[in-house]
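Researcher: I've got a protein sequence and the SMILES for zinc ion. Could you write out the 3D structure of the bound complex as structure tokens? I'd like something to compare against our soaking experiments later this week.
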Amino acid sequence: MANNIGNVSAQPYYLKTPEFFMIAQERQRHDEPIYQYGEYAMFVLLWNAIDYANGLVQRCPQCYNTNDAVSRVYNQPSYAMCDLCYGSMFFLESAGVGGLGGMKARLVRPCMWNPTDEYQKLVATGEIITATTSVQSVSDFRMRTGDFILKADGTRWRVARHETDSIISGFQAANDIRAMTGYNYPLCTREDESTPAFLAPPDTATVMSLLDTSIIPNWPVDFSSWEVVNGGLISDDYSNTQQNNPAPAEGN
Ligand SMILES: [Zn+2]
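Model: Sure. Here is the predicted complex with zinc ion in place.
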């Protein structure tokens, strides 16, 4: 394109190659302080309507009954305190009750918190004590709205908002798997003990004794016997492709 400085194109000819090492390096930088200054928590990932639409899970056989007028008319469970699906209305029949089919996953991971002081709030069931917090954890799983976090002090929290942090290091069709460096939960609210969050096993005394660990010796504790993985740990857009490879792909 000609202009007054000669035959110069406004279009640059150089498209920068993404620097893939940046993703792994940034994930490591994000994860390291969590292992240094964080604490253990138990993360309960529930099934949701997206998983149901993708054919990954079934309706809860206990609280969602299509012959029941409440479920049929309102598309809601006939009772809220369901100890199979913990209120999500979905249940993986192949995992069954023994395999905790109401959970997509239950993981123990380090995380950092900054809760507000407790405050009283009047809700339909009466006055409850609640609080809010943000939570940051490591990048090998993604929580969604409605999932639970079981804190070492015995409180239980529900994810109200989640965010994906990404880093763009070159020209590419970036998505949250290629460019993701971590996930953040900027708003989680403390659940009252009367809610289904407290139906998810293990019981609070066990959670507290498991997670309130001594830091001697100074290496990570193996919680694998407490973990349940019934579905992809990073899902939604990727739920159909990530089922057998739940860890985020590195450098592609
Ligand atoms: Zn149920």
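Model: Residues 21-37 form the longest helix (17 residues). Confidence is low (pLDDT under 50) at residues 238-252.
Researcher: Great, I'll pass this along to the crystallography team.
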